[in-house]
Amino acid sequence: QVQLVESGGGLVQTGGSLRLSCAASGRTFNIYTMGWFRQAPGKEREFVAAINWSGGKTYGADSVKGRFTISRDNAKNTVYLQMNSLKPEDTAVYYCAAGGVITIATMGTPISYDYWGQGTQVTVSS
Q1: 61-74 pLDDT per residue, tens
Q2: Whole-angstrom distance, CA of residue 43 vs CA of residue 63
Q3: What is the rounded end-to-end Cα distance, in angstroms, of the chain?
Q4: Is a pLDDT exceeding 80 seen at residue 106?
Q5: 3-state secondary structure string, the chain?
Q6: Which of 24, 7, 20, 22 is nearest to 90 (CA)?
Q7: Is it the case that residue 29 has pLDDT exceeding 80?
Q8: Distance CA 122, CA 113 (A)
């Protein structure tokens, strides 16, 4: 089992920045691919970004490329999502997830991940 706890969400104005953190506990953190997803009211959960077990490879949705950066610190069992130039359409609950068997083809699919956090709200005001 892996427990994931997100933090760092909040209310920010358009153009502002936030840094989300996801702290993991339980089984060995550094064997998992970590992902960030988000879900806005009335919409499906969508992929935001992912990072492989070593942190050497990162992937991001087209909608956040150039604005969001995913990183991880395996010594601290934590994955981060730095969000810059925030827009109102970034408003959502953000979830981190851990997956043991993730490929490039599956990283954007929520069911590919084994463990999920409870989510943290990000609200961007216009």
Answers
A1: 999 999 999 999 99
A2: 15
A3: 40
A4: yes
A5: CEEEEEECCEEEECCCCEEEEEEEEECCHHHCEEEEEEECCCCCCEEEEEECCCCCCEEECCCCCCCEEEEEECCCCEEEEEECCCCHHHCEEEEEEEECCCCCCCCCCHHHCCEECCCEEEEEEC
A6: 20
A7: no
A8: 22
